[in-house]
Amino acid sequence: MRRGILVASLLLLAAATPVVAQTSAEELARRIELAREMGAELNTVLRGASAARLLGDFGTATELMDKATVALEQADNAWVTEMIFQALASGRGSNGMQRAFREARQRIRMSPQQIASVTNNFPSLLLGGEFDEMILRFSPDHPDPEYRCPCLAEKAWVHRVAGRLHDSRVLWGELVAAWDRNPLEFADPDAQANWQGQYARNLARAGRTVDAQAALEKAMSMPVSDDERPAVQRRWAQTHAELGNVQAAVALLEPLIGSSTLVTVNSLSTRYTWEPVRNHILFQEMLSRHR
């Protein structure tokens, strides 16, 4: 798919610019500057790379082609994620999510780390154990660069979905211990609030319940914008779910259902993050109220 997009983009550029046209050096320089701007679209970056090539500036041409490659990879990842979200949102359940992921991998060659990243976001894809052996091969010093990754969360999910809760907690513990040593700090208050919510949730997954509760209280006291609040509030609910606080989790989730967020009846019924509380009567009653 990536090669097809790149070829199509290059053909579009070729069609848009007659080969007999003489483009001024000023115009070529302008295209390069546009390509270097933050958030430049793929076609703009490719036009800039072409302009640098025509000017004989092959270093800049290579730089911009590298930027185009990154943009293609990001587009691939976004496309795969949206395929899975579509299956989830439409109520096709874990099997539908797995079929969507299988179809995506038939179209795009994904590296082991890319696959692991997706399963980390959607642990339901791990049901059946298709990726277990591959993900558990990861290590920071693996001789194969494609498997050179701590990937603690990814491996923790493999163990958890397989029912090996102790092994899962150990890995979550290693992850939060690394965060304890080097806490992440963001200039953006929303990013900081989101990270604090993830930190509290992962402490709970590691079995550090007292620390998780303290971290959650801190997270819920942090400023967050109206736009980002639904995502951050979902992190708080995840922490309560991990701690077994079903009533508190429901109180945070229910206002989000049906309000154009990631929290829907289908997501709550399917996503593995809610597995600890999904069968509780309070959780099931909440789902029934919104079906």
How does this structure look, described?
Helix 12 packs antiparallel against helix 13. Helix content is 68%, strand content 0%. The longest helix is centred in the N-terminal third of the chain and has 32 residues. It contains 15 helices and no strands. It is mostly helical and 291 residues long.
Shape: globular
Helix/strand order: HHHHHHHHHHHHHHH
Q: In angstroms, what separates the terminal alpha carbons?
A: 37 Å
Uncertain stretches: 14-20
Give the % helix.
55-70%
Largest sheet: none
Average residue-wise pLDDT: 91
Number of helices: 15
Percent of residues in β-strands:
under 5%
Report Rg: 23 Å
The structural class is mainly alpha
Can you count the beta strands? 0
Topology (elements, then pairings):
Layout: H1 2-16, H2 25-36, H3 42-54, H4 58-89, H5 93-107, H6 112-121, H7 132-136, H8 152-161, H9 165-181, H10 189-205, H11 209-220, H12 229-243, H13 246-253, H14 265-270, H15 281-290
Helix pairs in contact: 2-3, 3-4, 4-5, 8-9, 9-10, 10-11, 10-12, 11-12, 12-13
Can you tag this structure with a few keywords?
single chain, 291 residues, mainly alpha, 0% strand
Gist of the model:
This protein has 291 residues and is mainly alpha-helical.
